[in-house]
């Protein structure tokens, strides 16, 4: 690391990047990529944080590490300092505050200020790149978008407008910037070079619900939303945004994982042993339920007799899945998970019969659902009504243990497909038993389920759609989740292209985990066949369709099923 000092700036040349840190204003120029605004805001429930004076940076050199502290006077805190930590390969930016408050949101790479020049308002970093890579699936499908387009990495979402961006919940918190204009297809990725921008934080510090990239008129900042659920007493330091050069966005995701692992903030792999049967082909009945629905709700068709018929048809044509997922809704209530005796009159015996055939059985679990739970075990709203199950509550954690003993012990099921982690109970007015929130509370939910399941059945398989490296210890397999439809121009996006994109994200974020390739919904029979052919090379194949495609009504022939069986035997 070579540092040259002038009256107005520090000039760093690390061999991997060049950075000019101003000595006269809160900014730094990362050559070719960004002009970093070193203003930050940490607003609270009661105070909007605005900087009203910035002081010259203080440089401390520690071997091959250079640390620049930018003290700032704040309207909300007794003290505030933005810190740049420069190593030969990385630049990390964070903000530290001192005082007391409940954090609302945090902005990095910009914030509200009255600068020493008397310029006032919201300041942002200048972005010299042309494209930004988004690691989470969205609708419209838009993997690399112009830097002028916003994005959110979050644990909150559904299919409503502006909310279909939590298919991975959470995704890796790693953006990547490209110097090339994104002008290819919806899942195309330009050649390098790239600049990765990832969030360095462990579970304990991930009490925010989402990271938003907010561009405007050539500038941008990052916003972390804490929803007034994180209290500070004394001092608090934000997660760091880490910049590092990369040859591709995939390498940027790998760097993100490596950074977390090296700092002790993420596990290297799953918490326990991988069992051979986990890698076997999967049949999930949801697609078949949807195809049979014909105006009814598909959840009415999670029935023992239908699953028997579908599995018999598959076996007749050479498809014998190693694992069967009984999907929504086999249970009377989502929250307490008792089998519905009308739909599954002999579930224990049915599972035993499948075991005798050499097959395993997973049960679908809707995360967060308060259905069937007492309000005192739930996150509640301002009226005291149950919004979501509360994993910070000891009573609910005990209930999870009882459910696991009942389903994995008494029924002898083999694990769970955990869905709807994106239905996080978001809101500053909501009340939980404990103090965790955001990504941290979701990890607490999955961690409670994971530990309770493994106590009952050590080889229980836990499937989630959470490809963030810090969630590696609460999942055995990462599901690529529901396929989307259209790009930003309203054109169809081939399902198999989405499969390849999602697989690349998952294996670079969590390379030691198995991947459930999913298979629903399919826009056509042709898309389904192309998807099925690609699945064995991209993870564990999962079959959702037996009789027809739900979106088109096209029939699935015996020859189709025999072809799938042949592809999956190779």
Mass-distribution shape: globular
Taking the sheet with the most strands, its summary is: 21 strands, antiparallel
Structural class: alpha+beta
Based on CA atoms alone, the radius of gyration comes out at 25 Å
Mean pLDDT: 97
Give the helix tally: 9
Low-confidence stretches: none
Number of DSSP-assigned strands: 31
Helix percentage: 10-25%
Strand content: 25-35%
N/C terminus separation: 51 Å
Care to describe what's here?
The protein is of the alpha+beta class. The protein has a domain of 151 residues. The chain contains nine helices and 31 strands. It has a 21-stranded antiparallel β-sheet that branches. A hairpin with a 3-residue loop joins strand 4 and strand 5. The longest helix has 19 residues. The N and C termini lie far apart (51 Å). The mean pLDDT is 97.
List keywords for this structure.
31% strand; globular; Alpha-galactosidase; 570 residues; GH; 21-stranded antiparallel beta sheet; 9 helices
Concise summary:
This protein has 570 residues and is α+β, with helices and mostly antiparallel strands. Helices cover 21% and strands 31% of the residues. Strand 12 and strand 13 (120-127) form a beta hairpin.
Structural topology:
Elements lengths: L1 E4 L3 E5 L4 E5 L4 E4 L3 E4 L3 E4 L6 E4 L3 E5 L2 E10 L4 E8 L3 E19 L1 E5 L5 E8 L3 E3 L10 E3 L4 E4 L19 E5 L15 E7 L9 E7 L2 E19 L2 E7 L2 H14 L19 E3 L1 H8 L10 H13 L6 E4 L20 H10 L3 E7 L11 E3 L5 E4 L4 H17 L4 E5 L18 H19 L4 E4 L12 E3 L15 H15 L4 E3 L8 H10 L7 E2 L14 H12 L1
Parallel strand pairs: 22-23, 22-31, 23-24, 24-27, 27-28, 28-29, 29-30
Antiparallel strand pairs: 1-2, 2-3, 3-4, 4-5, 5-13, 6-11, 7-9, 8-9, 9-10, 10-11, 11-20, 11-21, 12-13, 13-20, 14-15, 14-17, 16-19, 17-18, 18-21, 19-20, 25-26
Helix pairs in contact: 1-7, 5-6
InterPro entries: GH (IPR017853)
Protein name: Alpha-galactosidase
